[in-house]
Design goal:
heterodimer; A: mainly alpha; 6 helices; 2 strands; globular; B: mainly alpha; 0% strand
Chain lengths: 178, 108
């Protein structure tokens, strides 16, 4: 930043506050705003009323490929891509909007949200960096999060062809098959 | 229902639709584009309509909002009529949401 703009600063703070309200980890804030670590820390305590969680962010791409998380991640990513295709939003603003819409849709289906905003943000980064991709299901035609170089000709999504043990868990708020 | 009543109902549906669309667009455009499934150009137009214009446009013998789901797959999932491995309501609804969120081609 060459010159310090007050207007830009207030925009950054506003963005940070929205992210904290959505439950984002401090690392997301550090990466998506120009605010200093100290200011973010103070802001976090003020908005969330507690200290931010410590430790590293969940790092693996594997999580997005397991059955239930994959369905949640795919819903979010489809919404995110819709928003970025139809309007010129900054990536992080699109992530926040898509995340809110995802929460709405999940609530309408009566399922517990599995994806945190931090995971959603990671997912977008993974796809941007070709560590994961979106592949079209050969049965339903929907786009689902998949390995980076999935063969789309034989790809079937977790909802058209659920894995053998899927949906058997009795956890409340999970995705059930019957 | 008489023809007169039909036309009144269509006008009311149009009016409700246009007013809702306008509210959504004015509140948050990108989000409205997602919810309404329309192009940015149409959204700009609707967002700028005056109440008098809305009244005028609404009085037609045609509905202004079109069916969003024009594909059997999504329709089957929404109505749960397909013979599928999955027959849980919430899960098929989720599946339909994923498919619908992926359809942005029509809005471009």
């Amino acid at each position: 930043m060459a010159t310090k703009s007050v207007l830009n600063d207030s925009k950054q703070v506003e963005r940070a506050v929205s992210l904290i309200r959505l439950g984002a980890r401090l690392q997301v804030l550090e990466s998506e705003t120009d605010l200093s670590y100290e200011r973010l820390l103070r802001l976090y305590k003020e908005v969330a009323g507690r200290s931010p969680s410590k430790g590293q962010l969940p790092f693996s791409t594997e999580w997005f490929l397991t059955w239930q998380p994959n369905i949640h991640a795919s819903l979010f990513q489809n919404t995110y891509e819709y928003l970025t295709k139809v309007s010129a939003l900054d990536d992080i603003d699109a992530i926040m909007k898509a995340y809110r819409l995802y929460m709405e849709q999940i609530a309408a289906c009566g399922v517990e949200p599995l994806l945190s905003v931090t995971r959603a943000w990671r997912l977008v980064k993974f796809i941007d960096n070709n560590m994961l991709s979106m592949t079209k299901c050969s049965k339903c035609g929907g786009h689902f999060v998949s390995e980076a170089y999935e063969n789309s000709r034989h790809f079937e999504c977790g909802l058209c062809t659920p894995p053998a043990r899927a949906g058997k868990g009795s956890t409340a708020g999970g995705i059930l098959l019957h | 229902m008489t023809n007169e009543q039909l036309l009144t109902e269509i006008r009311e549906a149009n009016m409700t639709y246009l007013m809702l669309a306008q509210n959504l667009i004015r509140q948050d455009k990108p989000e409205a584009l997602f919810r309404l499934g329309m192009s940015e150009d149409s959204a700009n137009l609707i967002g700028a309509l005056s109440p008098a214009q809305i009244m005028k446009i609404a009085s037609a013998n045609m509905l202004l909002c079109r069916f969003r789901v024009d594909d059997d797959m999504v329709w089957n999932l929404l109505t749960n009529h397909s013979v599928n491995k999955v027959d849980n309501d919430a899960t098929t609804k989720l599946h339909a949401s994923i498919l619908m969120a992926g359809r942005y081609a029509e809005t471009m």
